[in-house]
Amino acid sequence: MISKKLTALVLISALFVSCSEDKQSPKPKFADNVRSLFGVLQVDSSQLLVTDSAGNAISGAQILIGSALGSPFAGNLISTSEDGVFTAPAEWTSAQSVTISAPGYVRATFMGQMPTGQKFALRKILPTQTMSLKGETTGFSVKDRDGLVDFGLVIPAITKQTFFNFDVSSFISKETDTITVVGRKIELPKNLSLPKQRESYYVGFELNKPQFQLDFNSAGERMIYVARGQFPINEVIGDIRNGKEFYELTNYFSIKGGAVRIMNVQNDVVQNLPVNELNYSGNLQVSGPTFSRDELVLSVPLAFWKGWYYPTDVKMLEAGKARNLTVAGGGTPYLLSVLKRKDEMGGTGGNIDRLSANFIPFTAGVAPSFLPLVDQPTVISPYHLQMKAVTKPAAINEGSQYSVLSKVSQVTIGGKAIDVLENVWEVYAPNWQTDMSIPEWPGENALSGRLRWEVTLTGVLDQNSLKNVDLGPKWLEAATHATRSSADF
């Protein structure tokens, strides 16, 4: 029991690095919100463009305008040219959903669209390809019997867009290594390393696991972050013996520094990684917001480099109290804060991926703010779901809604069943929906098997920040707030 909680403590930093617009009365109509949200991108033109997330044109994409083939008008299924362009039919005179499908891309529906020359962006489907980065972590300055366990954690850094598609398994290796401590076997994730060190808890023991392995499901460029940290062995074991859960121990957790590497991973890679190139000594104070006793707030300061974010600390906040967090020197630090229910922290039961998150520049004394936690969506069919209306704080403007439908399969690793998600359909709406439908694709069999709808409502502090955002994946980068929930069916 103690070994499992110690392992969980070491991994908590990876867990959440995982990591909108409200008008005053009278409330604008849906189509007006669409024009306001995407106004700068729109021009008075019937020529529309379909691209990938990098802006490259997609030829031969099929576009369905409306709720079904032939509705609201005949000829509503058209294709893009070699330049990724399609011409809006003359009959398209009211706001409609636009669904775009192209081989190699996640199908996407854009709600409430008028033909005004906008650009639609699709996200590529990344082919599944198992590969790994292996090596040893080097450069620790270990002091034996100092009461502190030194460790390294090798994780992929993340981008702003991936905050909203967070998957814990992307940061915690599914495979484990086994070490023996004081005659007891302990399983540790392969991306966790322990330099050779001697510690004691009533009796002396040695830790030595310098190797790490980080697994990937697809090829591509990644930033790899190697965190160097410590935690006090006596205090941690004492609190565990007193029955505290691992998330209650995060304030013992300290990241001291680390290193980053950008790699284009195409095959298995063997490379040792240092932990001593970055050292953190600065700190900023964060103020604990108001939240319920059955909830918790974790805050993670992030450093930004070349489009990627990586953590420099992780702490649990107390309501109304200030706490210092470690930050990297140079550049603007950011703060990712996560609100969750305590009874949904265990990784079992329904709605465990429900959370509310806040992402803002980290300035001294800032207090995180949150959209409320939301209930699971009610799935009427694979093509129809409903959400309860959400009352937002006055200071946060309602933003967009992002929903994703995925096929759910399972793999067994180390005797544990792990869900694997394959995104098949994304839905972008310019405001929050309580009732949402997508069309059945012409000539395609109905979706079947185990499926999952995940719904994210976003918010912004500045309602003008969304006006220059491309339709599709890039609008996620404008959000400062998000609240997420999902339902399997």
What does this structure look like?
- The protein folds into three domains: 2-19 and 127-288, no CATH class; 30-122, Immunoglobulin-like, CATH 2.60.40; 378-488, no CATH class.
- It is built from three helices and 33 strands.
- The protein has helices spanning 2-15, 30-38, 233-241, and strands at residues 47-52, 62-65, 77-79, 85-87, 96-101, 107-113, 119-122, 131-138, 148-156, 176-181, 184-189, 192-201, 203-209, 211-216, 220-232, 254-265, 269-270, 273-274, 278-279, 282-287, 295-305, 308-311, 315-316, 322-327, 334-341, 355-361, 378-381, 384-386, 397-413, 416-429, 435-437, 451-460, 481-488.
- The strands form seven sheets. Strands 2, 3, 5, 6, 21, 22, 23, 25, 26, 29, 30, 32 and 33 form a 13-stranded mixed β-sheet that branches. Strands 13-12-9-15-16-19 form a six-stranded antiparallel β-sheet. Strands 8, 14, 17 and 18 form a four-stranded mixed β-sheet that branches.
- β12 and β13 form a beta hairpin.
- The longest helix is centred in the first third of the chain and has 14 residues, at 2-15.
Short description:
The chain is mainly beta and 489 residues long.
What's the structural blueprint in terms of helices and strands?
Layout (H helix, E strand, L loop, with lengths): L1 H14 L14 H9 L8 E6 L9 E4 L11 E3 L5 E3 L8 E6 L5 E7 L5 E4 L8 E8 L9 E9 L19 E6 L2 E6 L2 E10 L1 E7 L1 E6 L3 E13 H9 L12 E12 L3 E2 L2 E2 L3 E2 L2 E6 L7 E11 L2 E4 L3 E2 L5 E6 L6 E8 L13 E7 L16 E4 L2 E3 L10 E17 L2 E14 L5 E3 L13 E10 L20 E8 L1
Parallel strand pairs: 1-7, 6-30, 8-17, 8-18
Antiparallel strand pairs: 1-4, 2-3, 2-5, 5-6, 8-14, 9-12, 9-15, 10-11, 12-13, 15-16, 16-19, 20-24, 21-22, 21-23, 21-25, 25-26, 26-33, 27-28, 28-31, 29-30, 29-32, 32-33
